[in-house]
Write a structure and sequence with these properties.
Keywords: DNA-binding, Transcription, Transcription regulation. The protein is α/β, with parallel strands linked by helices. The chain is built from 13 helices and 11 strands. It has 2 domains: 183 residues, Rossmann fold; 106 residues, Orthogonal Bundle (Arc Repressor Mutant, subunit A). Helix 8 packs across helix 9.
């Protein structure tokens, strides 16, 4: 980074950004400064035109700078919901590309990866995508190398999947600048159990039970991975069993024991969750969403969607705000 004495970090805020993603990065950096007895890190809040920005929780923030005034900065993180973007995309995207060309490390946390990728600055580099945005991200950016790791860090781009991952990323910045002992003490200050790094995959909830996907039995987990890779071209339970090397009866029994559901119902729930991400976070036509999750027409999607969520995709989209996801309950940006 250009400034070796003090690392200057900017947070570019968009309306609907998750407040936790901001504080989870700033607070460990503040603690590191106190522990080290020096201002190793400094930070500022930016918005597109230095306008006030409202977080997903309704808290309003004053920006200290506009993006155009952001010149001498080492790292710029974008914080947003997946649907956020610049009012003037040409100017905003151009400003990000200019910063990248002049040595600023660019990054996005949680939904912030959406405007980051839209700006055209990733240049084929991998991106950490939060699991709850995965289907929407793949629908909008099918050619981008999206990863399920909590952090994806290259020489010039940093991305993290959610607020806790942002904390981990801050610990890595602290370790790089001040050493492992300071980073460990910061983690202890906040009772953060461990510093996760590149290659660590996200914890993902199961479709039907209060556990995470990595707690599923190996046979069920293997099937779920197969199902996830066959959203647009669904496979039968018999085909999945054959690929894994077991019988369909074994698959049925394993799913019933682990999830309380048949594998076909679990698979359909996965497809419905993917459909709802696309309904919530994209503007894709419903027919395209149906095709993306393996339906030949809209009608069966509507039937299964209504069964899962209590309303049709079109009705859901009309009611959409950027905070709602399932059970007609709010979906905060994460």
């Amino acid at each position: 980074m250009r400034n070796k004495d003090r690392i200057k970090i900017g947070f570019l805020l968009f309306d609907g950004f998750p407040m936790a993603c901001l504080t989870s990065v700033i607070e460990p950096l503040r603690a590191a400064n106190e522990i080290a007895g020096q201002e190793a890190f400094c930070w500022s809040l930016l918005s597109e035109r230095q306008q006030k920005v409202q977080s997903s929780a309704g808290v309003r923030f004053e920006a200290e700078q506009s993006l155009a005034d952001c010149k001498d900065i080492d790292i710029l993180f974008l914080l947003s919901s997946p649907t956020s973007g610049f009012d003037n995309t040409t100017v905003g995207n151009g400003a990000l590309r200019s910063l990248g060309r002049h040595g600023t490390v660019l990054g996005g946390i949680s939904g912030g990866v959406f405007p980051l990728v839209r700006s055209g600055v990733m240049g084929g580099q991998p991106v950490s995508v939060h699991w709850c945005y995965e289907a929407a991200f793949l629908a909008e950016f099918p050619e981008v190398d999206s990863r399920s790791e909590v952090i994806v860090k290259t020489a010039t781009r940093y991305t993290a999947a959610g607020a806790a991952a942002g904390f981990d990323l801050a610990l890595h910045l602290i370790e790089d600048r001040l050493g492992g002992e300071v980073a460990h003490e910061v983690a202890c200050w906040f009772q953060h159990p461990m510093m996760r790094g590149s290659g660590v995959r996200q914890q993902v909830p199961t479709t039907t039970a209060p556990e995470t996907g990595d707690s599923l039995p190996p046979l069920v987990s293997s099937c779920v991975d197969l199902f996830a890779g066959h959203m647009s071209d669904p496979i039968s339970i018999a085909e999945a069993a054959q690929q894994i090397g077991v019988t369909p009866r074994q698959v049925e029994r394993a799913f019933k024991q682990a999830t309380g559901q048949s594998p076909s119902h679990y698979y359909r729930a996965m497809r419905m969750n993917a459909a709802r991400q696309m309904v919530v976070y994209t503007k894709d036509p419903i027919a395209d969403i149906a095709a993306a999750i393996g339906y030949g027409s809209v009608a069966p999607l509507v039937t299964h969607y209504r069964s899962a969520f209590g309303l049709s995709p079109s009705e859901d989209r009309r009611r959409i705000n950027r905070f709602r996801v399932e059970g007609n309950a709010p979906l905060p940006s994460v």
